[in-house]
Amino acid sequence: MPLVFIKDIDTDTRLGLWKIADELHADEVCPQIVCEELKRKCTRRQKETAAVYALLHAMTGRRDLVIGHNADGKPTLDGYIISVSHTIGYASIIMSKTRNVAVDVEYRNNRVFRIVDKFLTKQETALLNGLQQTKDTTLKTIASLTESHDAQTALLLCWCAKETIYKYFSEEKLMFEEMQICLEGFGQEGTFYCTNIRQDIKKTITYMQNEEFVLTYTL
User: Fold this and answer.
1) How many CA atoms are closer than 13 Å to the CA of 134, on its beta-carbon side?
2) CB of 102 within 8 A of CB of 94?
3) pLDDT value at residue 59
4) What is the mean pLDDT of the chain?
């Protein structure tokens, strides 16, 4: 079934995940105005959007809602504060009526090893290297661990967390170096911290991960 889960985080906040399927078409789930806009988009974007609206309907029971965007590019939705993320194979939504929220999902891939220097500081990389070495004393540097599942997980958690924090503080347009990850270990699900250095605000990042994806969110 395309719907992976809908989870009530609290009485006011819901998180959902949808597995993108080729048989789902935009004209089946999207409002007419969205379908018209999608005619100018590529097939991949059409599938992603269809998945988002199918998930939105599953979470709200409504098909009339239309997702917009504010000046910062953050999704907007009448009556809700909403965050949307999609990657190859999955789409996710977190929504609340009263509080700011943000989510990011990423499919598993080794591309993350090639961009470590773009999103991690030297201090963060050193901390992750130490984390890896506690699992395997033969491992030396994160950048060289292209075959390590644990290293991939750690890096994807950091990437998703910073993307989540960027969305949460969207009006600030934070740079990667203005976000500080504190990841001391991980399992299938759990929490860690990411700090908005510019404001010195530490946010709890909640995550879940499996063999196909890594997902993070914050409230």
Assistant:
1) 8
2) yes
3) 97
4) 91
pTM over 0.85: yes
Q: What CA–CA distance (Å, rounded) separates 121 from 193?
A: 15
DSSP string, 134-198: HH-TT---GGG-TT-HHHHHHHHHHHHHHHHHHHHTGGG---GGGEEEE-----SEEEEEEEETT
How many whole angstroms separate alpha carbon 196 and alpha carbon 181? 9
Question: What's the average model confidence in pLDDT over 26-48?
Answer: 91
DSSP label at residue 202: E
Q: Residue written as tokens 């250095």?
A: 197
Does an H or E element contain 194, and which? strand 189-196
Q: State residue 165's pLDDT score.
A: 98
Average pLDDT of the segment spanning 79-83: 97
Longest dimension (CA), the chain: 57
**How does strand 13-19 pair with strand 179-182?**
unpaired
24's tokens: 């789902």
